[in-house]
Amino acid sequence: MMLDSDLQLERALARISEPSVTVISTDPANAPRMPERWRVQRCARPAALGDTPRSDLVVIDGAFVDHYNPIDECRELTGAPLIVLVDNDDDAARYLELGADACVNQAATPAEWQARFEAVIRPITQPALAEQDNDFRIDDLRVSIERQEILRGDEPIDLTPREFGVLRALLVAAPASVRGERIADALWGSSTPAAMTRVRVYIARLRRKLELDPSRPRVIVTDGGSYRTALHRAQRDRATTSVLLLGHDEVTAERLRREFAHGEIEAFVATDRASSRRCDEFDAILTPADPVQITRVRLALGEASTPLIAVGAKADPARTVAALEAGAREVAVYPGRPGDLPARVTAVVRRARTP
């Protein structure tokens, strides 16, 4: 059974990923509580990432970073987001500057743990399909979801609607793996043996059309009982980082603008002439840490994937959780520790630009 609309299809596909998380820590007591649906593995050293199954998220005990920087080592072994566990928020800016995607305090409540982890992993498990992020590529193979167009160099590749539906399932979940049962259930309404056979048949057809050597697939890879695609979102071509300050009162907006005045981030207030650009043309949007405001911005953005960063006047665990659950990618306190806000913005944008 094919789903009736693209919206229904995207909602179904948003649930097909089952993130795999690796926690690097020598102290099991420091391991955070993970959502039950996540597959968690633990190791005592970053080098073990090369020997463990592929991870969608890596969590590093801050004790490692205090002795040496394992982040570069992890980056060489995985493209998954990296979160550092910190004992003191004073260390957050330093870890973010070293390359972490986010930091979480060891004393955070279980609700905040879950909300923060899901905010970081949201682009993987529920990627938004903004127009600028609808293009995927590997080598000279390009796929556009928006135009339903596939090119090898300048030569078009024709897919049937059902073939494109299977490919789209893999693209929406990328870079995470998708179990064959989940593809069958989303596209045919069941995961019976007959439906699973259809999945294998369509994967084989896609490989014949997309792979240079179907016997050695690179575009669609089998990962245990799952499938994943090596196609990745094309990076935006931007020389500078620009953020939009949206929804703040005039005094706060001007203070925020000055916060970025001497760094590498260009900030615009929503009333600026520059903000006549579409919101999704900015690298990030800074909005008050108000769940209602965040929801309104998300609705205004539609399918655009521009990350939202919520800014609050004080640390409030309950408000932090609410902001993250409403769709913020990060929550920052302002005014806060010197350099903390720019470091958080840079980390969020860096991750958003990573294919």
Q: Name the helix and strand elements from N-terminus to C-terminus, one letter apiece.
A: HEEEHHEHEHEEEEHEHHEEEEHEEHEHEH
Order of strands across the main sheet: 2-1-3-4-5
Could you tell me the mean pLDDT?
76
Count, helices: 12
* Inertia-based shape: globular
Uncertain spans, ≥5 residues at pLDDT below 50? 1-16, 125-132, 272-276
Sheet with the most strands, sense and barrel status: 5 strands, parallel
Give the end-to-end Cα distance, rounded to a whole number of Å.
Answer: 32 Å
Indicate the radius of gyration in whole angstroms: 21 Å
Number of DSSP E strands: 18
Class by SSE composition: alpha/beta
Task: Give the helix level as a range of percent.
Answer: 25-40%
Strand content: 15-25%
